[in-house]
Design goal:
CATH architecture: 3-Layer(aba) Sandwich
Helix content: 40-55%
CATH class: Alpha Beta
Bound molecules: NADP nicotinamide-adenine-dinucleotide phosphate
Radius of gyration: 17 Å
Strand content: 15-25%
Number of strands: 7
Strand order of the largest sheet: 3-2-1-4-5-6-7
CATH topology: Rossmann fold
Largest sheet: 7 strands, parallel
Distance between the termini: 33 Å
CATH superfamily: NAD(P)-binding Rossmann-like Domain
Number of domains: 1
Length: 250
């Protein structure tokens, strides 16, 4: 087994792959030689980063789809499979936040977050799994959050969705291990992206103080963990949650 991670010949889907952590995951997988198919909600965002991606490799494609739309996702995965003929890796990364105290949280904000973060993962994974099942191999890596493990004030919807991602991952790992399909989750801590840039500076400083490594994570910290979980080096890991958080809350 080579100790160098090499994904040439592998095809990966990355949801939310044109921004933040997802963009970094797309770039790292391309650098490792994989073909990367990005699914994201807004083609304009993808176009704004297309040149950046192209500098790494031309081996990518883009599909605009809302992951909470079950029919659209089923149709999109069918299109991808007929064009690519195989999917080796699925990275469930797309996610949103709609924060607020539970007592004031609207049904809409609750449902939006659960629909994108958890139901979206279910729709994509179900469709991709049918294909991996026939191929008798596959890697599914889903981006959860430290908040899914410990909860958070003002993030009941987000915490529940991310805890759901962890439970869904563990169930997939058990159901499909015998078919050579490995499913793992990554629980990032606090990572610098547009999702976290919105927070006031004093809150960011307070969060940083609670991180033993004394720095906010970068998107590539998560992308590197995804790369490991896609590789031959992690062939005996399934049903796990990898904490990538600088020691936060441990
Ligand atoms: P981000 O920069 O906002 O990227 C998320 C991407 O997903 C965006 O391109 C977004 O498009 C897309 N997206 C949103 N809703 C979608 C939908 N319904 N269908 C398809 N695509 C959709 O966020 P990020 O910080 O990189 O987060 C990536 C993942 O890491 C999320 O699951 C997040 O919960 C998780 N995470 C992040 C942190 C952190 O500190 N940043 C910590 C723990 C976990 P638009 O921008 O156009 O909406």
């Amino acid at each position: 087994m080579s100790l160098c991670i090499e994904l040439t010949g592998k095809t990966a889907i990355v949801t939310g792959g044109s921004s933040g952590i997802g963009l970094s995951i797309s770039q790292v997988l391309l650098k490792a030689g994989a073909r990367v198919i990005i699914i994201d909600i807004d083609e304009k965002r993808f176009i704004s980063v297309k040149d950046e991606i192209e500098k790494i490799s031309p081996e990518f494609d883009f599909y605009e789809a809302d992951i909470k739309n079950s029919e659209k996702i089923s149709e999109t995965i069918q299109k991808i499979i007929s064009k690519e003929s195989k999917i080796d890796i699925l990275v469930n990364n797309a996610g949103i936040v709609k924060d607020g105290l539970l007592i004031r949280m609207s049904d809409e904000d609750w449902l939006d977050v659960i629909n994108v973060n958890l139901n979206g993962m279910f729709y994509i994974t179900k469709n991709v799994l049918k294909h991996m099942f026939k191929a008798k191999s596959g890697r599914i890596i889903s981006i959860a959050s430290v908040i899914g493990e410990i909860g958070n004030t003002g993030q009941a919807n987000y915490a529940a969705s991310k805890a759901g991602i962890i439970a869904l991952t563990k169930s997939i790992a058990k159901e499909y291990a015998a078919r050579g399909i490995l499913a793992n989750a990554i629980a990032p801590g606090f990572i610098k992206t547009v999702m976290t840039d919105k927070l006031p500076e004093d809150i960011k400083d307070a969060i940083k103080k609670g991180i033993p490594l004394n720095k906010i994570g970068e998107p590539y910290d998560i992308a590197n963990a995804v790369l490991f979980l896609c590789s031959e080096l992690s062939g005996y890991i399934t049903g796990s949650v990898m904490n990538v958080n600088g020691g936060m809350y441990m």
